[in-house]
Amino acid sequence: MHYLWRAVDNEGEVLEAFVTKWRDRRAAMRFLKKTMKRYGSPKIIVTDKLRSYGAAMKVIGNEVRQETGRWLNNRAENSHQPFRRRERAMTKFRSTKSLQKFVSIHSSVHNHLNQERHLQSRQNFKLKREAGLAEWRQLAA
């Protein structure tokens, strides 16, 4: 069994995905340090009520920025859904390495190509989808 740690911004885009064997303070610290090194220190960090987050925040010195609540973590939980659907279709993963590789690629592709179809007109959706595909092809080339 492996644990998936994900950093999601306020718009629902996946910033960072990290796979660990353990779900403890040390794993939380590694994830938080890696994410903050890449994206800077956030104003607010919303987490679930897992105690390892609090312990890691105490060590890093961000415990005043942490918020936990019953529905505050919904944006991160909802960002798991496309990944979980894909994981079920693939019938799980065999190794940590393949899982980490898939997680990092899946979040990049999903951020570029997920356009929230129900929030816009068909014409705008097609334009944004084409722009996303063109950008992805440029990145992949």
UniProtKB/TrEMBL annotation:
InterPro entries: DDE_dom, IS_Transposase
Matches recorded under Pfam families: DDE_Tnp_IS240
Domain DDE: 2-114
Coiled coil region boundaries: none
Full protein name: DDE-type integrase/transposase/recombinase
Organism: Sneathiella sedimenti
